[in-house]
Design brief:
With 285 residues, the protein is mostly helical. The protein is built from 15 helices and no strands.
Length: 285
């Protein structure tokens, strides 16, 4: 339907152009240019959201090479590289965006994100320090919280995490990060609450389920939590609980959990089998 409409429009413009004098050509060209800009904007949005990440990288790389003066295309390339899991290349692109002198506060936040993914916490912090406090976005505070965590600035981390949670309708990931922060500090009860809350927002977030098992195991509670899980996830979580029990000296509990994990898995659970064999070999030795 859209293709038919577009063809009709182009034919109409062509007929009109033939009937009109040269004074109308500029108006027609401007109309066509406007239509092309709309099409390109839609295509860029598609590439940044639903397109295959590697295809998006290739698209924005070609577009940036063809029009190197366009910062928006470089931004698209940087975002696409992050989606493709190529953070090192993304950091190079974002640095180039910053060096254009046209960088926005969001550009610095995106650059900081790429730097953190590369483990360059110090420069990421320096970039965020240049973002004014009035720029309040979920992504900004999520990164601020992670940096505060890395610096063991716990009060700041908690404040940033809390702010980030309030700025998004999908807080599962940041709640999971906050819970892991609490767990590393030894506050397993607070960690358990945060992991549980994360799962209520995203029942498919296996990382939060696994961390929840670890938080409970830290207090000697090795039974699985009452959360939604597949049969494979159940086996994997039992395996996690087993290893946690063994590390805490509860060898018999760990052995039982490993056996339960093997029975629960719908296929062969090689990791649990190997762990149980190693445990039995150690005991016999």
């Amino acid at each position: 339907m859209r293709l038919t409409t577009r063809i009709t429009l182009v034919v109409g413009l062509s007929v009109g152009l033939a009937a009109c004098g040269n004074s109308d050509r500029a108006d027609v060209d401007r109309a066509m240019d406007s239509m092309n800009v709309i099409d390109e904007t839609n295509l860029n949005d598609i590439m940044l959201t639903v397109a295959d990440p590697e295809e998006a990288v290739a698209y924005f790389r070609r577009a940036s090479a063809a029009e190197p003066e366009r910062v928006d295309l470089r931004r698209g390339l940087g975002q696409s590289l992050i989606r493709a899991g190529r953070a090192t290349e993304a950091a190079v692109v974002w640095r180039a965006v910053i060096d254009t002198g046209e960088a926005t506060d969001q550009d610095r936040v995106d650059f900081a994100d790429a730097l953190i993914r590369n483990g360059d916490w110090e420069e990421a912090e320096a970039q965020l320090d240049q973002v004014p406090p009035t720029f309040e976005t979920f992504e900004r505070y999520r990164l601020e919280a992670m940096i505060a965590d890395s610096n063991q600035e716990w009060e700041n981390a908690d404040s940033f995490y809390e702010t980030a949670v309030g700025l998004t309708t999908r807080p599962a990931g940041v709640l999971n990060n906050w819970g892991f922060s609490k767990l590393t500090r030894g506050d397993s009860e607070a960690a358990e609450r945060l992991f549980t809350e994360a799962i209520t927002y995203d029942p498919s977030l296996f990382t939060a389920k696994n961390n929840l098992v670890l938080a409970r195991a830290a207090r000697g509670q090795y039974g699985l939590p009452l959360v939604q899980m597949t049969q494979i996830e159940r086996a994997q979580l039992l395996h996690t609980a087993a290893l946690a029990a063994i590390r805490q000296g509860e060898v018999d509990v760990g052995r039982g959990l490993l056996a339960e994990a093997i029975d629960a898995h719908p296929q062969h659970f090689d990791a649990a089998v190997r762990a149980l064999r190693a445990l039995d070999t150690e005991v016999r030795g």
